[in-house]
């Protein structure tokens, strides 16, 4: 996983996230002539040096 944060506006950062998943960990479902997969992406942002959660986020990603 790789994170590259940059300031998007005062007090806020945008953090593009990229990660690699082995093909064996992903299941594709065939629909006609297309293949489909679904990933659940969950993240927890913690304050450095503390065990305090600042934010939780998640999203379901689909690819056809």
Using brief descriptors, characterize the structure shown:
64 residues; 3-stranded antiparallel sheet; elongated
Secondary-structure map with pairings?
Layout: E1 2-3, E2 6-9, E3 12-14, E4 17-18, E5 29-31, E6 34-46, E7 53-63
Antiparallel strand pairs: 1-4, 2-3, 5-6, 6-7
Could you provide a short overview of the structure?
The protein has strands spanning 2-3, 6-9, 12-14, 17-18, 29-31, 34-46, 53-63. It has 64 residues and is mainly β.
Describe the structure.
This protein has 64 residues and is mainly β. The chain has a domain at 25-64. It is 0% helix and 59% strand. It contains no helices and seven strands. The chain has strands at residues 2-3, 6-9, 12-14, 17-18, 29-31, 34-46, 53-63. The strands form three sheets. The protein has a three-stranded antiparallel sheet, with no helix packed on it. It has a two-stranded antiparallel ribbon with strand order 1-4. Strand 2 and strand 3 (12-14) form a beta hairpin. The model has no long low-confidence stretch (mean pLDDT 77).
* Beginning-to-end CA distance, first to last residue: 23 Å
Q: Globular, elongated, flat, extended or rod-shaped: what is the shape? A: elongated
Largest sheet: 3 strands, antiparallel
Helix-and-strand structural type = mainly beta
Strand order of the largest sheet: 5-6-7
Give the total of beta strands: 7
Strand-and-helix sequence, N→C? EEEEEEE
Give the low-pLDDT segments: none
Radius of gyration: 16 Å
| Binned strand content | over 45%
For this entry, what is the oligomeric state of its chains?
A: single chain
Mean of pLDDT: 77
Number of helical regions: 0
Helix percent band: under 10%
